[in-house]
Amino acid sequence: MWMYLGLLAALFLGLHNLCKKHAVQGNEVFPVLFVTIGSGFLLIIPLFIGSQYFPEYTKQIGLYITPIPWKTHGFIFIKSMIMATSWVLAYQALKHLPITIVTPIRSAGPFFTFIGAILIYQEKPNFLQWIGFFLIILSVLLYSRIGKKEGIHFKKNKWIFAIIGATFLGASSGLYDKFLIQSLTLNPQTLQFWFCWYTLLILLLILSIIWLPNSKKRKAFTWRWTIVAVGVLLQAADYFYFKALQDPEALIMLLSAIKRSQILIAVVIGGLVFKEKNKRKKLIPLFGIMIGVFLILYS
Hints:
single chain, 14 helices, mainly alpha
């Protein structure tokens, strides 16, 4: 069951990435990110209110936000710090790079998760899983060669380093999620609510220092409906992802790889919507990544 939940998370993540590209293109990154997280937070607030005043009903429908000790709040705050940094780097990179380059680089996230799952959780991959993960990495390297034809030199472009950093932090957060869900026994909606709350506080601090004092940057912000859509789709994806992690048999290394199937939406549909270059050539490494994911599922 957890694999199907992972595929649902991938579906919403793929749509989320398309909306995110439209939201940040030629726009100010920090307010877009703040409003995105805020939109998702507004979606969860009714669950928090319901849990306070109608606990029996929210427990009955499986959406009760449980009280947690301060120590657990500290663990969630660490996740917020990791993801806030990852998102700032990723949004800045997405603003300056084609989605058909950004998304495949982020698809290398399972490789970092893969290593962490072996070292931290002692998850044991088999032969086909090894092949699948290395096939994903080789496909991402092929994307780098295609990216040079669009004037994107991976060794000189700072946004490439930004998206690589975002990918590493995102993978670290994925490993941390397993600890939060399984070791601390947090349910998805409790983790989502407090994670959004602390992330908003962090982003508000960043905005007050970098963005709000600068009138030129304030005027450069453009409102788009996709900003709200990004927040809603992200909450849907996270919910299914966290539900999958609640299964004691769920392997974080495989779940992370399953989520990468989102690139089918981002590369194919995104390439058509945003009219990006070399779409046909990008299909070759795309199939490489998809075969890698298939090998992991098949194994």
